Amino acid sequence: MKLQIFNGVPTQLSKLLLSLMAFTVVPISACSSRSPCDPDFIPPASPSPPNECRVDGCSLAPDFDFGYCCNQHDARYWLGGTGQERKQADLALRQCLAEADHKMLAVLYYYGVRMGGTPYLPTPWRWGFGWNYPRYQSKHDTPSH
Fold first, then answer.
1. Better pLDDT: 142 or 84
2. Where does the signal peptide begin and end (predicted)?
C-alpha cells in the first residue's frame, strides 16, 4: 500500500489534523443551518417524535465528501431509541465513513458521537433530539450505555 503525501504529511493524517482543528473553531450555532431529513433516511418508527427531523451534516466537524453518512446518522439520532440502537447507529456511521475511504476519521467521529451524543444533555444533536428534553417515561425509553 502506497502512502500518499501532501506537503510532507500523510494525506489521512492531514485530514485528521484538519478535523481536530475544526472541532476547536466551529461554533455550536452551526446546528442552526439544519435542513429537512431525506425521507429515505427516516427509519420507520411508532410513535414518531413531535419535532421535525432536520439534519446538518456532521454537526461540529467537517463533512468532507461524506455528509450523507452524517445525515443518515442525524436521522437515527432524531428518532432516538434504546442504548443498543444508539450504538448501532454510531457503528453504522463509522462503517459509512470507512467505506468512503476515511478509516482514520471513521474512528475519530465514532468516538466523538459516542461521547458527545449522550441523551442526558440538552444539546441539539443528542440521541433522541426529535423528542422534547428530557424524555424517559419508561424503561424502554431509557437508554443504556
1. 84
2. 1-30
